[in-house]
Amino acid sequence: MAAWFDANLVSILNGFAIGALLFILAVGLSIVFGMMDVLNLAHGAFYLAGSYLAVTFAAGTPSWGGFLTALGVAALVGLLAGGVLSGMTEPLARRPILDQALLTLGVSLVVAEVLSIVYGNDVLAVAAPPGLDGSVSVAGNVYPTYRLVLIGIGLALALAVHLVVERTPVGALIRASVADREMVSAMGIDNRKVKFAVLGVGSMLATVAGVLGAPVYGARPGLDDTILILALVVIVIGGLGSVKGALVGAMIIGQVESLGRALLPDVASFVLFGTLAVVLVVRPRGLFGTRTVAAA
């Protein structure tokens, strides 16, 4: 066992790094979908927009100034995109969720096409910031420093989101809006503003994840679809609206994705969706969800 662990340590660490990135992406989608009943299929396109913003500001000669600028601009773009999306989906609030899915899918296609026109169809790489572009030794294995930092960022964000949702008045307001929107409205609070804020923050996390993931995955057409599918698998496994579920689901899928491609490259996709199927059979609500996927 120890020999197997040592031989696959790099793949295991890659799984944690992928899981951390998927959590940053999926937690916003999970909260928006599980709590606000908005299935945002444009989430992957927002991630891709963040990746191209990293190319715009941080490609070429690596610098902290360019990388931090990309993060700041991506956060602002994500907030604005989420606000616009909130306004677009508001008229569909009482209609079947398929209507929202089709609307956000259309937004995703438009955003992806515009990005393809502006940046072309080549795979564009982004280097990690200075100081994080090297490697360190982990149990005798050489491993990229940036990916270790990415793991730390994901865990820190998980703690921060959990504290905000579970321990602050803002989180209590979000949970109350989900449990009884009419009562919240009767207290004089506009549910539309709550939805606007949650969608804005969720979309911001997607664009920021795009910047953070650019040194790992780069930016290319089609990446939005790949990353969206992985995020959807994460929230279904973890459970809708659960921060803990998003974290655990992301780490599971990170390991399945990394170890599956390293050990079983020919059937990696089957292993990924097989894991999803097993979890849904055993726990239809997901590992930590309070609602079934069919009810969402």
What's the gist of this structure?
This protein is mostly helical and 296 residues long. The chain has helices at 2-7, 9-36, 43-58, 64-89, 97-119, 145-167, 169-179, 181-186, 191-217, 223-238, 243-263, 268-282, and strands at 135-138, 141-144. A two-stranded antiparallel ribbon has the order 1-2.
Shape: globular
Task: Indicate the percent of residues in helices.
Answer: over 70%
The biggest beta sheet reads: 2 strands, antiparallel
Beta-strand residue fraction: under 5%
Using only C-alpha atoms, the radius of gyration works out to: 19 Å
Mean pLDDT: 86
CATH fold-level name: ABC transporter involved in vitamin B12 uptake, BtuC
State the name of the first-level CATH class. Answer: Mainly Alpha
Note the quaternary state here.
single chain
Return the CATH architecture.
Orthogonal Bundle
Strand order of the largest sheet: 1-2
Spans of at least 5 consecutive residues with low confidence:
none
Number of helices: 12
The H/E string reads: HHHHHEEHHHHHHH
How many structural domains does the protein architecture include?
A: 1
Number of E-state strands: 2
Description of the structure:
By secondary structure, this protein is mainly α. It has a single domain (8-295), classed as ABC transporter involved in vitamin B12 uptake, BtuC (Orthogonal Bundle). The chain has helices spanning 2-7, 9-36, 43-58, 64-89, 97-119, 145-167, 169-179, 181-186, 191-217, 223-238, 243-263, 268-282, and strands spanning 135-138, 141-144. A two-stranded antiparallel ribbon has the order 1-2. α2 crosses α10 and α11 (243-263) packs antiparallel against α12. It is globular and about 60 Å long.
